[in-house]
């Protein structure tokens, strides 16, 4: 009986120890990725993700809304200074989303969110679209358990901007306020990184 009880304790301790090591390794790798992201040298960082077959796409109603908003955005005037700031920063990082700077700013204007927010989150989550978990999902939108797959950058920008506008309507308007819902695992670190990138635009 003592031997069986001792074996259970040993297994439990081994499990706890493995969990602590895994958590430490995960946090350390996030620090390394952020360092390389900010320094602009992501080539030496390899981010692998397990493939999850449970993906999300836009519903039929969301698809109609996306098309309606996109037509409206085509006619919208936008602050070109903001567009240049976003484009310049994303281009300096070699981010694919640099080509979509005007759409990023117009969509932010349409949904009443900070024009830098969606671009900044894309840098933290995927180096501005270089390393996406799912097609065109530069934001980790939907999380790792049910990530979204988009048909285009525009569809993705629309969906993320609209989603963040819902945070805004709940009174969550800064990265620090948004972080616990957007990234509950490391909210303070995530918010600090997003704020830093926003300050560079």
UniProtKB/TrEMBL annotation:
Top-level taxon in the UniProt lineage: Bacteria
SUPFAM superfamilies according to UniProt: Lysozyme-like
Protein name: Mannosyl-glycoprotein endo-beta-N-acetylglucosamidase-like domain-containing protein
Lineage: Bacteria, Candidatus Dojkabacteria
């Amino acid at each position: 009986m003592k031997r069986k009880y001792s074996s259970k304790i040993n297994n439990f301790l081994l499990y706890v120890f493995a969990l602590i090591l895994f958590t430490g390794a995960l946090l350390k790798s996030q620090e390394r990725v952020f360092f390389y992201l900010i320094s602009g040298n992501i080539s030496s960082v390899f981010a692998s993700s397990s493939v999850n077959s449970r993906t999300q796409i836009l519903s039929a109603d969301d698809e109609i809304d996306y098309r309606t908003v996109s037509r409206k955005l085509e006619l919208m005037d936008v602050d070109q200074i903001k567009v240049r700031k976003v484009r310049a920063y994303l281009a300096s990082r070699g981010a694919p989303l640099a080509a979509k700077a005007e759409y990023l700013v117009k969509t932010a204007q349409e949904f009443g969110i900070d024009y830098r927010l969606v671009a900044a989150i894309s840098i933290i989550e995927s180096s501005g679209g270089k390393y996406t978990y799912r097609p065109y999902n530069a934001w980790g939108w939907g999380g790792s358990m049910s990530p979204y797959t988009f048909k285009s950058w525009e569809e993705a920008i629309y969906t993320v901007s609209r989603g963040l506008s819902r945070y805004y309507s709940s009174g969550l308007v800064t990265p620090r306020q948004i972080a616990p819902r957007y990234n509950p695992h490391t909210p303070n670190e995530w918010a600090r990184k997003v704020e830093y990138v926003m300050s560079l635009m």
